[in-house]
């Protein structure tokens, strides 16, 4: 069990690293602001299921749009939400509690990768990019900061 959890954390860390490395250069402030605004109702309600529905609706709208205009927003929301799942899973693991997200299809790595790579987005630029560099504040950090300013960021209450 412990090996499996460590493996999941390693895989997700590797999957999220490019986001941290290029987020500031690849994601506009408008996309970050829109992602935070979109996710705000779920995080104000401390409801991860609602956040999943928001991300799924975002992708559904992109699927309907032949130009896939808002894909960067959906991917940004998705990456942020998956990072929240990592934090929440670690909290449960540290307290030796059962992980309520273990069987969640949305949070499975293969489904996550399929979603974020379905259409061209900033993720594709990261894959082709060279010379990765660390940035001070990632897109996910900016979303969390916006949610915190609006009193909608409390990981301990988030379920």
UniProtKB/TrEMBL annotation:
Keywords: Signal. Residues 1-23 form the signal peptide. This is DUF1311 domain-containing protein.
């Amino acid at each position: 069990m412990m090996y499996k959890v460590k493996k999941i954390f390693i895989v997700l860390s590797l999957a999220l690293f490019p986001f941290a490395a290029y987020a500031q250069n690849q994601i506009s402030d408008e996309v970050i602001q829109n992602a935070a605004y979109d996710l705000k109702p779920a995080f104000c309600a401390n409801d991860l299921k609602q956040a999943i529905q928001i991300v799924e609706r975002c992708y559904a709208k992109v699927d309907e749009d032949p130009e896939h205009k808002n894909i960067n927003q959906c991917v940004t929301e998705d990456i942020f939400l998956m990072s929240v799942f990592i934090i929440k899973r670690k909290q449960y693991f540290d307290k030796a509690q059962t992980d309520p997200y273990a069987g969640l299809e949305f949070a499975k790595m293969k489904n996550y990768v399929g979603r974020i790579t379905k259409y061209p987005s900033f993720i594709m630029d990261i894959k082709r990019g060279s010379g990765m560099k660390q940035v001070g504040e990632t897109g996910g950090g900016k979303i969390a900061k916006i949610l915190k300013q609006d009193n909608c960021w409390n990981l301990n209450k988030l379920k």
